[in-house]
Amino acid sequence: MDEHKENIHAKMSNNTREDEKAKPCSRICPTEESSPPASPSQSNGDFSHPVYKEIALANGHINRMTKEELRVKLSELKLDTRGVKDVMKKRLKSHYKKQKLMQSAAEGGPTDTYYDYICVVDFEATCEEDNPSDFHHEIIEFPMVLISTHTLEIVDSFQEYVKPELNPQLSDFCVKLTGITQKMVDEAEPFPEVLQRAVAWLQERELGTKYKYAILTDGAWDMSKFLNIQCRISRIRYPQFAKKWINIRKSYGNFYKVPRTQTKLSTMLEKLGLKYEGRPHSGLDDSRNIARIALRMLQDGCQLRANERMHAGQLLSVPSSAPVEGAPAPHNPRSKE
What we know:
alpha+beta, eight-stranded mixed sheet, 13 helices, 8 strands, globular
């Protein structure tokens, strides 16, 4: 649903009423190139350790390698050889960096940290082929895919369909796009009940209590638009655990040094040498493919960190210099009344 979400984003930014107006990311968020994620040296605040000189020398050598030399070296190291040249360079640099940092950590030097888990969310919402300016998008699929940053695997998933309240009849365009039928939403529960089950699912896995985790999305729309508006429609407070998230498009653009036009889901998969698996625009399948991108980025050495947040109903950027914090423990939604 990524291309359709971009259309929604443009229409909503320009046409919605003031009380429901969401700020366009380009106006209040730095561009992909302007806010690179913190590197291990930045997060540890120590540039003087000799390990960083060794990493810099290795990076310089890798920068001079041809695509074929990179492929041969990756193959020798039994690493993935797929992807464009810049992706392979990042992968090889990451391999040497991890080796050096692991050795450094064993000797009491700088180390690296991750969240324990990353929870990928990609909502599907009601839509029309040409959404009118006053159209309210309601969440009709709530999927989550959980990845472990330690095993670098997808370890669990959650999926519930949602009964829309304002526009209970799905458009033909929406059914065709998402594959979600009228019967599916008619038999589903309203959003507050589905959110409660999503919260219970997160709590059962001890996220935010025993384990550190973060929410990850493909763009800003899922949290800043769909969830924000849905909470207003359902008359519940915006959940605290979803107020910060990782926008993988920003992280991908920063890490691989590519423009925003190359951060669509299909393009990210292609550049990483991956193919889409499943049905496009299915929320669960989209979430799984986004998770595959996140896992490949972690394997390539990307430090995925929360880079966007909601504050007073507005979308804001999280500075790369901000302390790394996991999402809070999830709690049941509270009524605004």
